[in-house]
Amino acid sequence: MEKIVLGVDIGGSHITAALIDLEKKKEISKTRFRARLNAHASAAEIIGAWALTIENAMGRYAGMPAWISIAMPGPMDYKNGICLIKDQDKYESLYKVNIKEKLAQRLNFPAAKISFRNDAVCFLQGEIFSGSIKGLDKAIGLTLGTGLGTAHMIDGKAFDSDLWKMPFLKGIAEDYISTRWFVTRFEELAEVKIKDVKDLVENHRDSPYFRSIFIEFSMNLAKFIYKFVRKKMPLAAVIGGNIAQAEAFFLDDTRKYLAQMMGYSFPIKRSTLGEKATLIGAGSCL
Fold it and tell me: Which residues of the chain have pLDDT under 50?
């Protein structure tokens, strides 16, 4: 059982959990559970929803995992399991809560065997471990979703680049590369409120602003990746997260704009593992 760990991916609107076989470098079949979350609920409700998803995943396999490794957005005291997210329109009730202790009590699982890692780090680590950049010795990773996650690789290990708050255009990078930007910008252009990028793609493709908003996003993303590349000098970038599921509407343009800035074609790869990348990465980060 030492090779069986539980990987957990917590985002701004969801939680996914699955058992990971580290020896085989893959998710154990039929152990994945996913649930949508209300990131504005009370701390007890949120932690209860997380615990239920984790219990469902563990309940599909005989025995207990050796470890629970949780990928979660920052800011956070990852070592001690204390949430420090503030003023980000999510998880307000968890500010300064020791999530590690609360989950350990709820799951009746040793706190010493529950660890937290930055979600972008876990995503990149998963892609290094068994995904689209396996074999590369220098790469960067971006998770595009409720927030912006960034990570870079050193000697085969992923580290948090913490560039979501980097000064960018008229604010910080996350202001322009996140679900929040799509929601705000589309409302400015079309005077229509959307829920997220999935809603935009599924219900507003006939809008005269549909193409223009993705072109603008492509340019913003290319500018950001250009700055990221200049900082870390990687051989390739890999992207994941909920927004990446709409890659058909922005990724080719992003590559084109970035090539114009750099003077050559820089590889931007789409995650081959999808959601599994963060789960596998969380497990392999031990």
Answer: 1
CA dihedral 284, 138, 241, 131 (to 10 degrees): -50
CATH C-level class of 133-270 = alpha beta
The reply to whether 133-270 shares the fold of 4-122 is yes
Peptide bond into 75 cis (omega under 30): yes
Cβ neighbour number for residue 203 with a 10 Å cutoff: 12
Distance CA 19, CA 27 (A): 6
Q: What local confidence, expressed as pLDDT, does residue 285 receive?
A: 67
Q: Do residues 233 and 262 lie in contact, with contact meaning Cβ atoms separated by under 8 Å?
A: no
Pick the CATH number of 4-122 from 3.40.50.1100, 3.20.20.70, 3.40.50.2020, 3.30.420.40: 3.30.420.40
**Closest Cα to residue 80, out of 108, 105, 111?**
111
Sequence ranges of the domains in the chain: 4-122, 133-270
Burial of 51 (0-12, 13-18, 19+ CB in 10 A): middle
Contacts of 129 (CB under 8 A, 6+ apart): 25, 280, 281, 284
Give the pLDDT confidence score for residue 197 in this predicted structure. Answer: 96
Distance CA 281, CA 272 (A): 13
Tokens, residue 26: 């893959």
* pTM, to two decimals: 0.86
* Strands 14-21 and 33-36, sheet pairing: antiparallel
Residues 93-125: pLDDT tens digits? 999 999 999 999 999 999 999 999 999 999 999
CB atoms within 10 A of CB 10: 24
